[in-house]
Amino acid sequence: MLDLTYTAPKPKVIAGAKHDWELVIGMEIHAQVSSNAKLFSGASTQVGAEPNSNVAFVDAAMPGMLPVINEFCIEQAVRSGLGLKAQINLVSAFDRKNYFYPDLPQGYQISQLYHPIVGEGEVLVELAPGVARRVRIERIHLEQDAGKSIHDMDPTMSFVDFNRTGVALMEIVSRPDIRGPEEAAAYVSKLRQILRYLGTCDGDMQHGNLRADVNVSVCKPGQYEKYQETQDFSHLGTRCEIKNMNSLRFIQAAIDYEARRQIAIIEDGGSVMQETRLYDPDKGETRSMRSKEEAHDYRYFPCPDLLPLEIEQAWVDQIAATMPELPDAKKARFMGDFGLTDYDANVLTAEVDSAAFFEAVAQGRDGKIAANWVINELFGRLNKEGRAIADSPVSAAQLGGMLDLLAKGEITGKMAKDLFEILWTEGGDPAEQAAKHGMKAVTDTGAIEKALDELIAANPDQVEKAKVNAKLAGWFTGQVLKATGGKANPAVVNAMVAQKLGL
Amino acid sequence: MSIDIDTARKVAKLARIRVEEAALPELARELSGILGFMEQLNEVNVEGVEPMTSVTPMRLKRRADVVTDGNIQAQVLKNAPDAREGFFAVPKVVE
C-alpha cells in the first residue's frame, strides 16, 4: 500500500496593530450515536415524532426510575474510539453534571467526566495534497442529550419537548491542535467522514446529529510552540467557547470573528474573559451567554444509579475485527492500486458508498478511466438531479460493461457518452443497447483509408497547408469523422492522417 | 471544610430550592455537620484499597438496542403544571 507522508500546514495569522496573532482552537464534537433506543431507556430516537411521545418515564425523570444502559451505544463508542486510533478504557464510569434548565428534567446530565470510555487518539486532517494537521483526541465520553425548547409558539411561554432527552451522544474532545478556521472545518468534515464510515453516527449536521463547541484563543507567534513543548496552557491566551455550531460555514465565520474580537480587546489594553458565547449567523458575530456563567458550577459527582462500566478486552478485539477500511487507508489504496490522483482519490473516498461503487467499476479495468467516468459523468449527473449514489439509475456493472466496450474500441468516446445517457434513461445491457442503437465504431481501417484518400485528392490546398502547419491536419481528422458518421475512432484516424500526409 | 451562609445560599440557588434567609444559618450548620463527618471518614487510611461500588459483585446491567418504551405522552404530561399541544409549557427562557 502507498505510504502517504504529510507536512504540517502553516497556522492562520491575523495581522494586529503591533504584531501578528495566531489562533489556537480546540473542539468538542457532539455526535449522536445511531441507535434505535436511547442511552438509558427503551424509548425511540426517531426524529419527527409527536412531541413527548418518544419519552419513557426514565427520560422524564419520574421519581424512582432507574437508568439501564444500551449495550449498542457502548459498542459504538468503542468502535469510534478504535476508528480514531484511541485508547479504549476497559473501566469507565458515569458522573452527574448538575445544572438547571427546563429541557433537562433530571436536573443533571449523565456524562463521564472522570473516567471516559475512550482515551487519547488522533485524527489526520488533510488540507491540501501532502499537507495535513495531526489533531490529537483527548477523549470520547458517552452522555445524554438534552430536550428541545421552542420559544416562538407563545409570547410568554417556552414549550419543551423531551423526545431528544436521553439520546446517546459521543462527546469527542480534541486537544488545542487546530490552528485556523479552515482547519477547524476540515477537522469536523474528517471526523464526520470517519464516523459515517464506521456507521456510529449519521453525521447529519442539519438536524444537529453532529454539532460542535469551539474553543478559540489567540497568542503571539512562538507561544504555541512553547505550549506544545511543555503542554502548559499558561503559554496560550484565555479562551472563549462558542457553543452549538452545526454548520461548517458558520464555524469558520464564528472563529474568524471571535479571534478578531479577542485581538481587539487585547490590543486595547484589556483582557479576554473566559466565557461561553453564541454565534449569531444573521449578524455574523458572537455574543456572551451570560446566563450560562453561574450555571458553570456543575457540582459533578459519580452517578449513584450506575455501576462502573466494565468491558472485556475480548469484546473490544471482536469489535476491532469487524472494523471497515477507513478513509485514510482506502485513499492510499486507491492511489496505489488504481493510480488515482490525490484529488480523485479524495472525491471517491468521501463517502463509503461512492468508494464501493467506484471499486466495483474499476475492478479489472483501467482505474483512471473508471475514476473519470464515475466522477465526471456519473457524479456530475447525480448532483444535477440531486440523487444519492444508492439511487443511481446506472449500476456499477452497467458502467463497467460500457467501459469494456470503450476499451475494446467497439464504441468511440462520443458513443460512450450517448450510451451512458441511454443507460441512464432506459437502462439495459450496455452491449445490447449499443447494438440496438447502431453504435459501432468503425475499426475497419479500409473504410477510413478510403474516405481519407478521397479527401486528400479533393483538397490539395488543405494538404499543402497541413504540411506547413501540422496543426491544420486536424481538419482532415474532423472531415473523416464526419464522413464516417462519427463512428471512426479518432485516435486511429489521427494516426492515419499523420502517416498519409507524411507529418 | 465548613459551609458558610453564602455557600449555602449559592448551593440552594443552583439547585433551585427556595430557602428563606432566616433558615440559611441552620442549613449551613447542618451541611457543615455532614462534611465534618466525611472528613472523619477521610482520616481512615485507604491506600491500595479499590473503591467499593457495590455490596455484592455485580456487573452493570445492559439493555439491547430495542425500542420497548415511549408513546405515553398523556402519562408523561399528566403531572405538568402546564402542558399544551403535547409540550410542557414553562415560563419563557430565551438565550
From TrEMBL, chain A:
Residues 356-501 form the Asn/Gln amidotransferase domain. Its EC number is 6.3.5.-. The keyword Repeat does not apply. One of its GO terms (molecular function) is transferase activity. Pfam families: GatB_N, GatB_Yqey. Keywords: ATP-binding, Ligase, Nucleotide-binding, Protein biosynthesis, Transferase. The keyword Transferase applies. It catalyses: L-glutamyl-tRNA(Gln) + L-glutamine + ATP + H2O = L-glutaminyl-tRNA(Gln) + L-glutamate + ADP + phosphate + H(+); L-aspartyl-tRNA(Asn) + L-glutamine + ATP + H2O = L-asparaginyl-tRNA(Asn) + L-glutamate + ADP + phosphate + 2 H(+). GO terms for biological process: glutaminyl-tRNAGln biosynthesis via transamidation; translation. InterPro entries: Asn/Gln-tRNA_amidoTrfase_suB/E, Asn/Gln-tRNA_Trfase_suB/E_cat, Asn/Gln_amidotransferase, Asn/Gln_tRNA_amidoTrase-B-like, GatB, GatB_C_1, GatB_Yqey_C_2, Gln-tRNA_amidoTrfase_suB_CS. Heterotrimer of A, B and C subunits. HAMAP family: GatB. Allows the formation of correctly charged Asn-tRNA(Asn) or Gln-tRNA(Gln) through the transamidation of misacylated Asp-tRNA(Asn) or Glu-tRNA(Gln) in organisms which lack either or both of asparaginyl-tRNA or glutaminyl-tRNA synthetases. The reaction takes place in the presence of glutamine and ATP through an activated phospho-Asp-tRNA(Asn) or phospho-Glu-tRNA(Gln). PANTHER family: GLUTAMYL-TRNA GLN AMIDOTRANSFERASE SUBUNIT B MITOCHONDRIAL AND PROKARYOTIC PET112-RELATED, GLUTAMYL-TRNA(GLN) AMIDOTRANSFERASE SUBUNIT B, MITOCHONDRIAL. Belongs to the GatB/GatE family. GatB subfamily. This is Aspartyl/glutamyl-tRNA(Asn/Gln) amidotransferase subunit B. It comes from Tabrizicola oligotrophica.
From TrEMBL, chain B:
It comes from the Bacteria. SUPFAM superfamilies: Glu-tRNAGln amidotransferase C subunit (SSF141000). The keyword Zinc does not apply. One of its GO terms (molecular function) is ATP binding. The keyword Iron does not apply. It catalyses: L-glutamyl-tRNA(Gln) + L-glutamine + ATP + H2O = L-glutaminyl-tRNA(Gln) + L-glutamate + ADP + phosphate + H(+); L-aspartyl-tRNA(Asn) + L-glutamine + ATP + H2O = L-asparaginyl-tRNA(Asn) + L-glutamate + ADP + phosphate + 2 H(+). It holds the Pfam family GatC. GO terms for biological process: glutaminyl-tRNAGln biosynthesis via transamidation; regulation of translational fidelity; translation. Heterotrimer of A, B and C subunits. This is Aspartyl/glutamyl-tRNA(Asn/Gln) amidotransferase subunit C. It comes from Tabrizicola oligotrophica. The gene is gatC.
